[in-house]
Design goal:
Number of domains: 1
Number of strands: 7
Largest sheet: 7 strands, antiparallel
CATH class: Alpha Beta
Structural class: alpha+beta
CATH superfamily: PAS domain
Number of helices: 4
Order of helices and strands: EHEEHHHEEEE
Radius of gyration: 15 Å
CATH architecture: 2-Layer Sandwich
Oligomer: single chain
Strand content: 25-35%
CATH topology: Beta-Lactamase
Shape: globular
Distance between the termini: 7 Å
Length: about 170
């Protein structure tokens, strides 16, 4: 993915897409002013429309990589494969991936982050991807997991998009 915009976010009104906004508001409601506990994530309490877009990943190692414990069906479809139980570096550019650095910054800053950019996966052509990722913590006080949502936007025109267009 070639990122075109990325920033720390603290206001749901900056998120235009309904799924991203509702995911952020759900996370924010778990621990206003703090990093919420991982154990507080409960799909029963979430708006149903966000479930296919969710990602949940644990940090592993130092420096951390991220093992996806959950990837929603829309994320799997957008990626072109099931990423559950995979490491981020296994499917997104290895240890030099800008996405890996983005996930690490969420933990380091203990703050949510929004990003958007261009993405192509396999034979599926997309114009834009948007994501919001937020920190979580297991039993300690330091963030050690991420929770978020990813939205893939299909091409609006019918011309095929080549991989070079996505860079």
């Amino acid at each position: 993915m070639a990122m075109s915009e990325a920033f720390t976010i603290d206001d749901a009104d900056r998120l235009e897409h309904r799924v991203l906004r509702e995911t952020f508001l759900y996370w924010q409601g778990l621990g206003v002013g703090t990093v919420p506990p991982y154990a507080d994530i409960n799909p029963v309490d979430m708006p149903k429309r966000i479930l296919p877009h969710l990602v949940l990943a644990d940090a592993e190692g130092d420096p951390p990589d991220f093992r996806f414990r959950l990837m929603g069906s829309a994320v799997d479809q957008g990626n072109g494969f099931s990423g559950t139980n995979m490491l981020l570096t296994e499917h997104h550019g290895g240890s030099s991936s800008p996405l890996l650095e983005e996930y690490r910054s969420v933990l380091k800053d203990a703050a949510p982050r929004y990003s958007t950019g261009m993405f192509v996966a396999g034979d599926q052509l997309f114009r834009k991807i948007e994501r919001v990722i937020m920190p979580l913590r297991h039993s300690n006080d330091e963030p050690d997991a991420v929770f978020g949502a990813i939205v893939f936007h299909r091409s609006v025109d019918k011309r095929p998009m080549s991989r070079s267009d996505a860079r």
